[in-house]
Structures are given as C-alpha cells and as structure tokens.
Amino acid sequence: MTAPGVEDGVRETPPLDERRLHPVTPLRRAWAPIAVIIGWAVHDPNQAQEQLARLTTATLLIGLAVFVPAAALYGFLTWWFTHFAVTDSELRIRTGLVFRRTAHIRLERIQAVDVTQPLLARVAGVAKLKLDVIGADKKDELAFLGEDEARALRAELLARAAGFAPETAHEVGEAPSRELLRVPPRVLAVSLVLTGATWGALAAALVVPPLLWLATHSVWTVLATGLPLLGAAGASSAGRFVGEYDWTVGESPDGLRIDHGLLDRTHETVPPGRVQTVRIVEPLLWRRRDWVRVELDVAGSSNSVLVPVAPRPIAESVVARVLPGVTVPPRSALSRPPRRAGRCLPVWWRGYGLAVSDGVFAARHGLLRRSLSLVPHAKVQSVRLAQGPWQRLWRIADVHVDTGANKTVTARLRDAQEAAELLGAQAERSRTGRRDARPDRWMAP
Amino acid sequence: METGSAADTGTTGAEPVWTGLPPRLLSMRRLLLVVWLGLLALAVGLLLGLLVGPGWAAFALLPLALAGWGWVMLGRNWRSWRYAERADDLLISKGVLWQEETVVPYGRMQLVEVTSGPVERHFRLASVQLHTAAAATDATIPGLDPAEAERLRDRLTELGEARSAGL
C-alpha cells in the first residue's frame, strides 16, 4: 500500500512530490456499488422483494463473498490511482483507472478554497478540499485528506497563490484569522421563522397530501408527492438551520474565512479581490428588525452566502471588508426611477433604485423582498443599454452591467437621457477602476 | 448610413465615429429570405393547388407577403447595426424597436473570434465576435468585409493585450 515509487520506472515526467489521498478514501468509494443496488430496490420494490425471496442463505453468502471484495477492490484501485502534487504554479491531480484524467489547476486562478467535513468524515478525522476555478463546471475536489493535511494544503495553496516564494510557502502556514461576525443560533432560528419560504414549504407539505387523498384515494400518489414536499419543507427549515449553524466570518491575509455547519462543517476561503458582486437581501418580515442577508458571487462558483442573517450595520461593515473602500449606499442615496416609469411597470417601479459611487455600481430591485446588488467598477466586463418600444415612448431605458461571475446587474427603468450618460460614464469607470485593483497574486512583492 | 473604412480612433468623450455594416450583408440576407420563402410559397401553392383545389393555391401569397414584409424589416435592421472603435472601448449599437447599445472595454476581452460560413464566404463576409469573462456579454458584429474583420480582430487583440485586465 505504501512505496509509491514502484511504478516510477516508466514515468517520463520529472519526479514530483506526488501524494495520495487519505487511506480512508476507499471506504467512501466502496459505497458506490451498494448505492446502485439500493437505488434499484427503491426504484422497483416489488421485483426486488421477489428476487430476495428466491435467494437462499447459501447464494446470499456466495454473493456477499464475491460482492464485498469486488467493491473493496474497486475502492482500493480508485484510491491507488489518484495522485496529486503541488508545483510552483499548479495543483496537479491525476486520477482514473480506465479513463485517465489529469487536471492542472493554475494557482493564481483559484477563486476559492473550501475544506468541508461531512459528519462521517468528522468522526474519521478526514476532510474534503474543494477548489473553485473559473470556467470549470464542477468543483475539483480532493476527497479525503487527513484533517491536518487538508488544513496545511489549503494554507500552502493560498500562500503559493498569493505569490509567496515556493521555498517559504510551506513555512508561511495558516494565516491568522480575526473574527468579524458570528451568528447566534437564536437569531438564525428567528430569521428562519420569519422567512416566507419556510412557511410556504411547510404549508404545501401539510395541505397538498390531504387534498390529493380526497381527490384520488391512492396511497402511492399521496406518498409520491407528500414525501418530496416534506423533504423540501425540512430542507428549507431544519436543513438550513443545521447548515448555517454557528456561521462565522473571519478575516485573514489569505482572504475571507467562512466557517459553518452543525453536523457537516464547512470552511471556505475566498481570496481577496475575487468577489464579483455582493447582494444585500432584505425579506419583508426582517425589515422591522433591520436584519439582512448578504450573498456574494465569485467567478466559477455557485451562489454563495456570506452572512445568513445579521443586523444591517454589522452586515455593512462585513461588506466593507469584502469590497475594500466601499460603503454601502444608504437607502436615501438610491435614486428612484422617474414617475412615468409607472406606465412601464405599475406599482413595482417603486422597488427599483440606483446609486453609483466611486467604488461600486449599486442597483436595488424588489418591492417586498428588497435586494441591493453591488458591483465594484473594476469587475464590470461590459455595459449595455436596452430600450423597448414602449419604454421609448416614455423615454425610459434599462442599463445592464455584466460581471465575470455570469451575473448581470440591471438598473431598470432609468430616464433615457440619464441612462445614456450612465452607459458612457460606467464604461469609463470600469476601465479606470481596474487600475487600483489588487493583482492576482496579492502578496507578491 | 454607408459603409466606410473605419476612422482610426475617436477619443473618449468625443462623439464616437460610427461605422455601418457593408451593403453586401443586406443583399445576402434578402437573398436568403427570398430563396427560402419563395421555395415555401412554391411548395404551398403546388401542394394545395394539386391536392385540394386551385382556389386554395392562393395561400401561397402568404409566404410572399411575409417575404415582402421581411424585405423591409431586414433593411431597417441592417441600418440599425453600427459599431465604433473608441480609444479604450468598442461600442456596438443595434435594434430598431428593441434597441441595445453595448460597451466593451478593450481590456476585458478574453477572445476575439472571426467566423465565416459558406454563404457568407460567397458574399465575402465574416463576423467578429468578442468574448469577455461574462457570458451575458453579447458583442457580435455580423457580416463585415473579411479584410476589415481581420483588421478589427488584430486591432482588438493588440489593444486587449495592451490594456489587459482579466477578471
């Protein structure tokens, strides 16, 4: 199981410090064939029962004797053929038994590094390392590594990505983190109670199955619709509570640290200068308490939450850390669309707003659930002005700002003249905004 | 709006120097329209005339009317397309009823693509497409003179390198 040098005789590449994943990994992989069997049994319960009834103890034992070693061998082989190595500029992952796959990930292009620990992995003392890279559909992950090894590797990757010399990258170690915010469990629970989606899912789970029962009197239909609904209700309330439990945001030279989870612990790191847009969402029922939720978009990553719930002043101070030198425009600074915009979009036109400051382009939308999107000028990829025929009649236009995270922030229903000026000015700002931006390798001398 | 060789640079802030698309693009689009709708009219007229009755063949006028309407629409749409190279960004303006104006700073360009299909090649046309890191950026200039398309590509790539900014 050791001695990785055995097969080295035929390798043409210069010897790298190639490493294997943690020896626990095969156990995880061994689950795959069993999951297939279970899936089949659930999918087709009648036939599965028939087949099981026909089995005698002897066949069962023989089956187990074949099946378990086969699964173990499969797990062992996938583990044996997965290697990774960190070079000066890249993280290389070689994997695959039949279909070989080699991924070279450029370190300065890494958008975020996550260390996650599912419950069982916590028990076993191992962790998963996930990397966000631009242009990749899914996250590349190293599962599993020893807990300390994962931490050390994350520190090393970030240090090298930051531009520390390769020799010193090992010694730099984990950058010290300073806590910015911790969400108390009580606040999180109250915030979930005050979220419409929680109640919507619960109501659907409670109302739809009885109605279906009255309509069809078929247990299977009721179960088939009721169980997913219950699952959705659970995920949106208890699931979110468990996932967002003990949410901590910290600041370190490596970037922003986000740690959360009750059962599965996740430790995310977003290096500085990678945030493309920040959204401050304010659901209707939170408004009285002045609570907000902060989400951020990073290129190559799915929608991620920065702060699940926090009082507005604290949330704004965290946003100021994420986007240095940016103050969140207060509500009074947002300019509303002109009154005639009501002809294009009755009632809801009041929900839109726009503010442009030195650092950001900020657009708000939503009447009940307000959402304010902030785009740093340096992250704007292109600016578009669009105007339909009805809008032209009322001299109204929309301005779209495209960012690198494939998100478009739109300032809707602006005065046409103002929008035209905004288009030119925003292009100019996005061009000059980049000059003061930090380099990709933020620690490089 | 007539085709002209693009003026080299407009300074930022000053009124941009707009360039239209070559008339050959309009000819190509109109030809394609007439060919396809003409074939459709012929097929409809023959089928209905022979199978149902001669009177029904009048339905063939429908695609012809469509072709006439499309002829005018294509002209308006062609006139609406224009682009301008400024010192630091490229402007593309298009659309008649739904107007859209796009600004792409040169520094944000990740890739400049020149494509040309068989029909386009016959009409000596090529399209230039700009890609930035944002997929929503739809900056395409359809149907340019191949020489102009290549000049634009080289110039954009050169300017993009000089002002490169990435993400």
From TrEMBL, chain B:
The organism's place on the tree of life at top rank: Bacteria
Residue ranges of every copy of the YdbS-like PH domain listed in the record: 78-156
Alphabetically ordered keywords of this record: Membrane, Transmembrane, Transmembrane helix
Transmembrane segments: 31-50, 56-74
InterPro entries cross-referenced by the UniProt entry: YdbS-like_PH (IPR005182)
Protein name (database record): PH domain-containing protein
